[in-house]
Amino acid sequence: MKIRALMCLFFAIVMVVYAWDRLPLNGQGLEKVFALSWLSFAGLVIGGNIVAIARRGRKSTQAKQEVDNARAVKRARQFG
């Protein structure tokens, strides 16, 4: 799951870099609205992938702690 989020983040950044010169940021009317909306959606995608990567790292440490706690409880039951 983390690899997928990293790949999506990489491809989203590549698309923004590629499209930056081609987007009509100085355009009039709908051209400018399209460019700004495209960039805002790209920002949401990049932000979402960063959050997914950050949460995945936090969940893995919490999951390890829960597994260690479960093992400790199981050992205590064996000897108690």
UniProtKB/TrEMBL annotation:
Keywords from the named record: Membrane, Transmembrane, Transmembrane helix
Transmembrane segments: 35-54
Protein name: Sporulation protein YhaL
Gene source species: Shouchella lonarensis
Biological classification of the source: Bacteria, Bacillati, Bacillota, Bacilli, Bacillales
